[in-house]
Amino acid sequence: MISLASGAVLAHAVAACKGKGTGEQTLLRGLLPLIVKSDILLADALLATWWIVAEIRRRGGDVLMVQQGRRLTDFAQGRRLGQNDHVVEWPLPQRPKWMSLDDYAHCPAVLRVREVEVDGRILITTLLDPKAVTPRELDALYALRWNIEVDWRTIKVTMAMDVLRCRSPEMIEKEIAVHLLAYNFGALDHGKRRMAGRRPSPVLEFYKRKARASGI
User: How far is residue 199 from each of residues 34, 127, 212, measured CA to CA in Å?
Assistant: First the structure.
């Protein structure tokens, strides 16, 4: 989980390459307790599930994601906000195996979600007021998610974390944590320099220039 405001890594989760409990949705659910009121989570379509959206709303946060391909979007339904822009209700799905009966009993019967199409891409969000945020503003905000992809590329490739060298799971987790800590020191220095009106962090800028030059 990377902060769009600072570029710092707020949290991370590590799992095996395959097997039960190693999917991105499962790993993200373990990080959701970090979401606080007024946070907005930008994520791709894989994470646009009923359960993830519901948990973030329960914590006072909001989401902005790409619509899942298997979910039907019919702009003739729901409360119309504008051209290809509406609010719909997602009904509570059947209880998944990983959820307890008690947690399921506390789930809302429906989720109110805004679906909006901009330049052929359908976004889903819990920011429901079209006067507070327009479709173009939602699209522009989601486009900033690419900055996080660049940050992650910087961490993995230009900071040499693309190949882990430790041999045991415990040491691999420590190796990842050290890389992220080093990156966050650069992000912290970068933020302090920006606030003081000084040149960007030379360490962070070096890594990002190297990432752009590599074309990866």
Answer: 31, 35, 19
Read off the pLDDT of residues 100-112 as tens digits, 9 standing for 90 and up. Answer: 999 999 999 999 9
Cβ atoms of 186 and 151 within 8 Å: the answer is: no
Cα four-point dihedral sign 137, 142, 147, 151: positive
Q: How far apart are CA 48 and CA 35, in angstroms?
A: 16
Check if the beta carbon of residue 144 is closer than 8 Å to that of residue 126.
no
Tokens 């901009």 belong to residue: 118
The helix (H) or strand (E) run that includes residue 114 is: strand 110-118
Percent of the chain exceeding pLDDT 90 equals 55
Which of 29-33, 117-121, 181-185, 198-202 is the least confident region? 198-202
Q: Which two tokens stand for residue 177?
A: 């944590």
Phi then psi for 114, rounded to 5 degrees? -95, 130
CA 69, 75, 77, 81 torsion-angle sign: positive
